[in-house]
Structure formats: C-alpha cells, structure tokens
Amino acid sequence: MSDTEIPLADHPEHISPEHGAPCWVNLMSRDLRSAQEFYAAVLGWHFRPALFGEEFAVALDDDGEPVAGIGALGPGWRVPVAWTPYFAVDDADETADRVRERGGTVAVGPLRFGAGRALLAADRDGAVFGCWEGRTLPWSVGRGSAPAVLELRTRDAFDAALFYGEVLGWAESGASGCDVAYEHDHVVVRDSTHVVASLCGGALEAAPDPRLLPRWEMQVRVREVAAVAVAAESAGGAVAPRPPVEGNLCGRALIRDPDGAQFIVTEA
User: Fold this and answer.
1) Angle at CA of residue 137, ends 61 and 140, nearest 5°
2) What pTM was computed for the model?
3) Sign, Cα dihedral of 203, 149, 122, 191
4) What mean pLDDT value characterizes the chain?
5) In angstroms, rounded to a whole number, what is the distance separating the alpha carbons of residues 143 and 148?
6) Which PROSITE patterns match (predicted)?
7) Nearest CA to 49 among 89, 5, 87?
8) How many CA atoms lie within 13 A of 104 on its CB side?
9) How remote is the C-alpha of 178 from its chain's centroid?
C-alpha cells in the first residue's frame, strides 16, 4: 500500500500538522461507489482504498496526490451528507469537552482510525466540522491539490470566531497555532505561512441572518467551470451559478452532488 492510500496514518514522511489548522476534508456519503463515480466524472478524481477499510477511499488528482477523502455513512451515524473540514488538535478528548462546554455538539467520537483519533461535531450554530488527533500527510488548504478555499458561511462570524478560537486554540497567547484577523465582515484564519480558512456572515455589529443555513464550504479550482457544470448535471447533480468575487472575474458555480453535498468550483 502506497503513501497516497494512507492520508491519516502514521508514516515517516507524515507530519504533525499545525494545531488548529485544517488538515483534511472528507465526505461521508450514502453510497461510496456512487459518490466515487460522480466525483470522477465531474472533477476527474480517481480513488484508492484508505487504511481504514472498504468503507473509505482517498481521492487523488491526475498526479496521484491526495485531494480529499470519501467514506460511507455507518449504521446509526446521524450526520448530514456534506463536505466536512477536519482541524488538527493535540487531544481529541479534551477538544470534545471544549465543544460541549462552549455550546456545540459532539455527534461521533472520539474514535480511533489507524494511528489517529477523530471526532465529528457541530458548532453552536449547527455547522458541522471534524477534529483529528495524529499525524497527517503534508496537506494544506490553498496549497497543491488541496481545496483552494475553505469558508464558514454563518450567521455571526464574530461569534463563530470566538467558538472556534476557544475550541481549537486560535490566537492563544504563547501557543503555536493559527492566528485570526478581522477584515470587514470576514474573520481570516492563518497558519504560520498563509490563509487556511475564513469565516463570514454579517458585520461585527449587525444582527445575525436567520435565513442562512450555517455550513462549511470548500472551493475547488477547475480548468473550466462550464464544462464541470455540464458534467455535474449529466452525472445526476445540480448546479447554481455563483457571482464572481470582488476583483475576480472568473466563473464560479455551486455544485450539489446526487446526495446533496455541496461545493464550489472556480476557474484557476
């Protein structure tokens, strides 16, 4: 079994990820094979088995580099079908306690997977996220084959920053980890080198938007948004156009896979 088949297992080439930073993204699907077929057709990914068993697979790009994980929902797992970011933590049990103490919910775990431990949780506004205790491949949002952008769409970015900051140790005095900065209605999260996530959803003194369904969104760079949109609809998904971001005139689209999981594509 090669390195690319073991995204979250102990290996000499693996690293200890920066505390509090996103270290992986994963989709828990209702049908693993169907999900693989959709993402192969739409994004050109191919797959290899993961260390954790037949219910998990690692998505690879054309160069064989790991992009993300896809798994099959286990019996009794009452979690949404959605792309979920995982954040690096030192102690999964302590993190689970912090989630509960600060008004969040722990849905699954902590559970052992290979040489690490994972938990799946929701923040106090309902957005789902995961935490991982253990070593990982050198993978980071905005670098290489990883998603280009990871963004939390929430009702109150300031409140969300307080929650995640306390749970994940962002901007803790004297600790190595992620820092945060407030830029207009966004909270920008940086590791020691670059931006790894952003939180948006309302100006600092604005009332929370009750119409917004809080969720984490990943953005994937593609060569041609129009072609990806056609492929998604042909494969049983749905497409919603997204306006270009300020200063960026490239096309964007929100893709929904047949199970309802959403992600954004933008032209590189």
Assistant:
1) 70
2) 0.87
3) negative
4) 84
5) 7
6) VOC (PS51819)
7) 5
8) 27
9) 16
Determine which helix (DSSP H) or strand (DSSP E) holds 162, and give its type and residue range: helix 157-168
Taking CA atoms, 161 is separated from 18, 69, 74, in Å, by 18, 26, 31
Confidence of residue 257 (pLDDT cuts 50, 70, 90): very high
Cα 38–chain centre separation: 18
**The predicted structure's pLDDT at residue 137:** 75
Whether residue 85 contacts residue 128, with contact meaning beta carbons closer than 8 Å, is answered with no
Q: Cα separation of 169 and 105, whole Å?
A: 18
**209 CB neighbour count, 10 Å cutoff:** 13
Concatenating the DSSP letter of every residue in the chain gives --GGG-TTS--TT-B-PPTTSEEEEEEEES-HHHHHHHHHHHH--EEEEETTEEEEEEEE-TTS-EEEEEEEPPTT----S-EEEEEE-S-HHHHHHHHHHTT-EEEEEEEEETTEEEEEEE-TTS-EEEEEES-B-S--TTSTTS-SEEEEE-S-HHHHHHHHHHHHTTT-TT--S-EEEEETTEEEEE-SSSEEEEEESS-TTSPP-TT---EEEEEEEES-HHHHHHHHHHTT-EEEEEPPPTT--S-EEEEE-TTS-EEEEEE-
Q: Determine contact, residues 26/68, Cβ cutoff 8 Å.
A: yes
Tell the residue number behind the tokens 């990820």, with chain if given. Answer: 17
**In the structure encoding, which two tokens stand for residue 196, read together?**
């790894």
Task: Give me the pLDDT at residue 212, please.
Answer: 62
